[in-house]
């Protein structure tokens, strides 16, 4: 299954934007409260909470689509079907 070219571009763009926001908020808190553990913890907590909320929202959106993994052509197949040697074949041991 090929991934469209625009999907990695969107992920990279939003990731860079999120990191830029994190740096900006970090600097704002440094100038307001000084460099301390509480300022760093606040920014990192907000950043990770945003990742978690985005993951939950993305999961709910993905659940409503018709896309499936594994592809329909691979469903119903035993994943170990082609990886184990035949037991009755003396040359496979």
Key terms:
93 residues; mainly alpha; 2 helices; 0% strand
Could you explain the architecture of this structure?
- The chain is mostly helical.
- The protein is built from two helices and no strands.
- It has helices spanning 6-33, 37-63.
- The radius of gyration is 23 Å and the shape is elongated.
- The two termini are 34 Å apart.
Offer a concise description of the structure.
The protein is mainly alpha-helical and 93 residues long.
Shape: elongated
Strand fraction? under 5%
Percentage of residues in helical conformation? 55-70%
> pLDDT below 50 for ≥5 consecutive residues: which ranges?
none
* Largest sheet report: none
Helical region count? 2
Compute the average pLDDT: 77
Please tally the β strands and state the result. Answer: 0
- The class by helix and strand makeup works out as mainly alpha
End-to-end distance, in Å?
A: 34 Å
